Amino acid sequence: MALTPSSMLPLGTKAPAFSLPDTVTGTAVSLDAAKGNAATVVMFICNHCPYVKHVNAELVRVANDYRKRGVGFVAISSNDAKNYPEDAPEKMKENARANAYPFPYLYDESQAVAKSYQAACTPDFFVFDRAMHLVYRGRLDESTPGNGKPLTGADLRMALEALLNDKPVSPDQSPSMGCNIKWRKAA
Q: Is 60 exposed, middle or buried (0-12, 13-18, 19+ CB in 10 A)?
């Protein structure tokens, strides 16, 4: 595990389209199908990362709190499952069920979606407005494994509250920190 920060995709970037298999249902889920009426959260996560394991419960709480308010959520794992079998689709399905994910958990086998979002770590969060322009990217909150700070989802919640109340999202945003995405080695 290499501690890696978010790359901080430029604000205003249009959400890159995708269609990926949902590891729970087996059906393809597109960005259009995942998007919400008010906002859309695209999360890059995985099974094995201790930073993701640390925030899983709060991810579920945030999604449950905001889905009913018109926010769409989707999680994507882009890790190389050959070299990291814990992140393989069948294990993703088990993890999604064990954590009661209220959002699709998609597998980006080609890693093209992670590259299009410039995702660098897990977890990595991207929030898009109604027009699908990036308004927030970075961390869930300031809690990390072992730092003793409570999980609140404060940073992500602040961005969502601003959007839902037709206020600008503060551009003062902190990168997420976590495990680097496990890129496949070039052949």
A: middle
